[in-house]
Amino acid sequence: MVHNLALFTFNCTFVGYSVNFMPIIEITTLHQPGVEVYGTLTEAQLRNRLEPDKGIFIAESPKVIHVALDAGYEPLSLLCERRHITGDAAGIIERCGDIPVYTGERELLADLTGYTLTRGVLCAMRRPMPHPVTDVCRDAQRIVVIDGVTDTTNIGAIFRSAAALGIDAVLLTPTSCDPLNRRAVRVSMGSVFLVPWTWIEGDVTPSLNALGFKTAAMALSDDSITLDDPVLKQEPRLALIMGTEGDGLAHEVIGDANYVVRIPMQHGVDSLNVAAASAVAFWELRPQH
To answer: 186-224 b/e with 16+ CB inside 10 Å = b?
Structure first.
């Protein structure tokens, strides 16, 4: 049962923004219809693998939401603290048309979501349909394949480095974390909306060789070459394959790769966190113009 539900319109001008007749829905219960996406649905349910065209993801914080809107993602609803309607959320509300805006006390929203909202704003957005690998890689020179990385923080950090350091596309194996996971999106600071990405299945190296790429598996092995080897920079199309920090890449992935590459280490350190290693590799092997 919904108690004290206030549905009203909002019309005011402030700090350069004009918000006209936006449907603001005041919630006083965790069971308010429409807010399930922010609390009770799991990441798997939001992703909706059975019906991908109905999938949803959550973007968190005003900056990230603006990046998603700039990239053309479709907003479905907003959840924000009441004080942010005329503050951090104002510009977002102005851009989002007549989608519902759910609001309430800070404590209630934290109970609903299970965490304190970053700068008080969340946006439910339509998940785009995945693109074919051929489309994502068509004009790319440098791409990264994320193989079996499940940590959301690492996924977000890899995307942020990829966007900043000239990686043209990101491919993920099905065993990797969803880039549109709420935390991955937030850690990436919206970079998941800036770099083309999609899923890749099957044997990575043969698939990418067919598209004109040479593959470089980042791994420790007896036949590995160092990251600064000139042969890598000379490759016109190169795909870096990054694995999980603990188990690393599977032996068959390493065996299939055109190159096996290591980052030289000192002081007895054998490897870097996958997010740190990716940033080093992206910078070293950025396209030479």
So the answer is: bbbbbbbbbbbbbebeeebbebbbeeebbbbbbbebeeb
SS3 230: helix
- Angle at which helix 152-164 crosses helix 274-284, to 10 degrees, equals 10
Q: Which residues, 6+ apart, have CB-to-CB distance to 191 below 8 Å?
A: 67, 156, 159, 160, 162, 163, 164
Residue carrying structure tokens 């006083």: 28
| pLDDT bracket for residue 174 (50, 70, 90) | very high
Lowest mean pLDDT of 52-61, 116-125, 215-224, 244-253, name the range.
116-125
Q: What span, in angstroms and rounded, lies between the C-alpha atoms of 203 and 112?
A: 42
Amino acid occupying residue 264: P
CA pair distance 145, 170, nearest whole angstrom: 6
Its pTM stands at 0.86
CB 242 within 8 A of CB 158: yes
**Quick one: which H or E segment has residue 57?**
strand 56-60
117, pLDDT greater than 70: no
Position of tokens 């770099």? 195
- Strand order of the β-sheet with 101-104 is 6-14, 17-26, 101-104, 75-81, 121-126, 56-60
Least confident of 11-20, 141-150, 231-240: 11-20
pLDDT tops 90 at residue 277? yes
Q: State the Cα–Cα distance between residues 163 and 31, nearest whole angstrom.
A: 39
- Nearest-angstrom CA–CA distance, 131 and 103: 35
Q: Are 108 and 28 in contact (CB under 8 A)?
A: yes
